Amino acid sequence: MQARGAAVLAVVVASALGGGDGPVAGAGGGDGAARADGPRRDALPGDAPARRDGPARDAARTDARGPADAAPSDAAPDAPLSPSPANRGWIGGACAATDECAFANAMCLREGFPNGACTMPCDGVCPDRTMPGDTTTFCIDGRPYGLDSGACVSKCDPTVLPGTGCPAGWHCAERNRFAQPSVTERVCVPPAAPSACPMADDELVEVDYPDQGLLWIPHEARCGGAFDLVVMLHGINPQSNPTPSLGGGRHLEHELRAFIDRGLLRPVLVTEPVHFQPGSTTLYGAGWDPLTHLDRLAAPLGQRGLRIASLSYTGHSGAGCDPQNGLYEVLARYHDLIPARAPSMPLWGLEDVCYAGTYHWSAPKTVLADTGTTIWNVFSVQGDPTDFEDNLLGAAAPSFPCNADIFGKCIHHPTRPWWCQRTATAVSHDTNPYFFVREVLPRGFPPN
Fold first, then answer.
1. What is the reported pLDDT for 79?
2. Are both 253 and 174 inside the same structural domain?
3. Rama region for 165: left / alpha / beta (φ>0; ψ in -120 to 50; rest)
4. Distance (Å, rounded) from C-alpha 426 to C-alpha 435?
5. pLDDT at 200
6. Residue 403 in contact with residue 48, Cβ under 8 Å?
7. Is this structure's pTM higher than 0.70?
């Protein structure tokens, strides 16, 4: 994929999600998780990525930032930092200019990177060098760092850099592999902006509804206050995966953390109600109610002094494949949710749903037309979204700029905040939610 600098990222949304009817513009990108095999039904098999074994889940646990992440391995905050001798002239090594990075396609990242960092764009895998003092590499999402592709970074290695395993001024944090987010590694990243809340760790809290589920609380929210809440509905779940996108599977909490740390996304609460259902005729149907789900969230939110500033929903695959269930149940209950449970619904998002049937576009047009809610659809492979696009946006919908390496089509409604994108071949059905998060959430919830 083509690397693009900060100038590309300057093409930003003209208004926050739900903040007006005018069109927005921006660059695209993203990816996802391995899927399980199963019989095709009304949604693609394996919407919930295969379950991975791991430690038992606690009622409340920290995630995304381990003890080594609490503070970078530096001296006094204002003291000059000596460049690390590790990875000299190589990925992760210090640099003042690109010519100090002795490899093809090299870049030297400077602003916000203590002593600079050599990197290169990547599609998922980075080369390793085996000289003394080198650490191994990993390909992470480069969007938070000014590239609209993957970016090669160094893994944390205390045997080379005692302590956190990173150079002075950097910290060690869990990150997703670009275009394969179910693979994660602890890598060296630049320090985050200071937070008014002294808590060091993000938190994953169990909220077992309708079967299981998690609530992700960024550490900036752990001191209480009003925060946006995004509810992520997963696709069909024939293998009863307890963690499709949070705390396992796609590990979208790491992608969110990367954008928050770089000041590109304000801290948001994210929850995934997990439903063990094999098809969309039962997924998020009779066994799930959006109001009951919010009732279940009330206790962990209240215990932490948290209030819901706004309420948004996204749905992957089977969560948007039945007129009575999932995303469409949310629309049917819209007036029970807004403003009774939250002042507004900034985002109603579709991630490679089924698209067949007029309800796919008629219901959101009827319910959301005068609410200011942004409708954002990202299609990858499931069905044909042409009728959905034409009826939602109009047959002559104008295009908006996006990364052609990742998106083949990007169009919007001429007057309403409604957007549709079609991904290129690099994005699979199962990686679609990762690309959705990467593309949409920083636009809709920019820093305050």
1. 52
2. no
3. left
4. 11
5. 84
6. no
7. yes
